[in-house]
Amino acid sequence: MHIWVDADACPVVIKEILFRAAERTKLTTTFVANKLLRVPPSLYIKALQVPAGFDVADNKIVQELAAGDLVITADIPLAAQVIANGGHALNPRGEFYSTANINERLAMRNFMEELRGSGVDISGPSTFSQADRQAFAAELDRFLAKTL
Question: Could you tell me the pTM of the whole model?
Fold first, then answer.
């Protein structure tokens, strides 16, 4: 198994959790972004810079993904592609996307995008909290314990 991280918008605290998990589990973890990323020196942690552009990092992750791989992303369309290709997708707030919930998440995302496009003022996601960080770490640990 390989862990892929949609790293452009991934919170720093989540990256730090993933750095520790990669070292502990000895799983290759690749952070994909369109900007230069600094990652600790490690046999298991990689940074992959892709050209700037809409969905370039997402497309690279989908292209490299193998069935059973884990992708860390808040991008719902990317999560849908990951699931369709046999991978697992975990949101930085600790929610796993699955075949049971991805269509609902996509529909809500598209609805909200339509509202914003029509001029309705909609607030974005809540501030990333300590509870979000703990939820992510707990879900990651459960998944890795079950999978490895």
Answer: 0.92
